[in-house]
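hey so i finally got around to running both of the ones u sent me last week. sorry it took forever, my laptop kept dying halfway thru and i had to restart like 3 times lol. anyway pasting them below in the order u listed, first the sequence line then the structure token line for each. didnt double check formatting much so if smth looks off just lmk and ill redo it

first one:
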Amino acid sequence: MEMDKRRFQKMFPNIARELESKEHRIGINSVRSDTETAEKASANKFVGYMPDVIDFIRRCDTNQQAEEIVDYLQRRGEIGQEYAKRLKQQLRKKGVRSFGTKKEEGYYLKNL
């Protein structure tokens, strides 16, 4: 259903005001295609947290470095072939920063 802006504002004035307001915005700075991994990463911050392939990728500066990490973890059996393939596809299509901002040294200490 297509609707112009004025009609939407008349029908839903509060929603229109919220959408146009710059308050309460949440930035999205990463994409995880594996929901199970995403849920684990977001729960309880770092309590008992073991870094996963995404954490290692986020420390990389280039797509090539990230692909090397993926290959290494696949060879060690820490990630499966299919997951490695999906990660590499995302790297090629969207780049290393699509996994999130770069994790600099001391990231975990600064973000407790």
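and the second one:
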Amino acid sequence: MKKILYLGAEVGAAAAEDVVSGSAHLIRVPSNPNDVESRMTTADALLDASMKVVITDAMVASAAKLQIISCATTGSDHIERTELDRRGIPVRTLMEDKQLLLNLTPAAELSWALLMACARMLPAAIDHVKDGGWDREQFPGIMLNGKRIGIVGCGRIGTWMSRYARAFGMDIVGYDPYVSEFPPQITPVSLEELARTSDFITIHVPLTEDTNGLFSQSCFERVKTGAIFINTSRGAVIDESALLNALESKRLKAAGLDVLNDEPEVEKSPLAQYAKTHHNLVLTPHCGGFSHDAVKIVCRRAAEKIVAHLNP
């Protein structure tokens, strides 16, 4: 029977197993490089719902039976491609499943939660009460109604963010050179104007050669003083050093990030170190898309692609 390695949460494994039962054996593997590398040597397929392990060319070279990698994620930048391309092994992702993704909202919901946490100074206020305080004047919130939100990347998640913003009475602008027709609630502007005029800036683009470093130092130097910055896409799409400088100089009031360039090994990340002693940077561990409801759906879909490929 064919062997499929599974990396990810248990709830996703159960959903995938329902799909592959009878046609393949699903093997749950801890998300660490040594276990993955040793198990890949006999695997026919890899279902990656984790993104915690870099899949290297060396791993693929040792996996003589490997026929397909299917990711239960939109991103796949953790997978090296030279050996896969040489052998003609496909890497499938959720970027192929536009209709399925349309109603998957956890990433957008976390993005909005980070925006609200920054706007209302929630981490500092919560710690204040835990320490026995009760002084609301230390934690003035920002009223969202009437403020401008700039959305970089106006696809699925950016569109959901615009819907939330409209419900809060915000002025909505967006930048996306790949969108020909913007949602009616988003006014298209240049990236420079978005950076300069927005009270809130939120990033929702995939990591590609074009988007690597997209929100650059010059963008951060243009941002409106007191703006709030949200990134739940990939760490590498922004200049993290420039973001840190903007926080330290108080040009940015706050930032909320679900991604870091060094993840998952973030111990030495300057942003992670800064967040330990400053409440105006809110970090979450790339959990935006992780909800049990969504994980079941995407793992089933990723498993379906493997079964179809192994049993044409």
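quick thing i noticed on the 2nd:
The chain has two domains: 2-98+292-310, 105-283.
anyway thats it, ttyl
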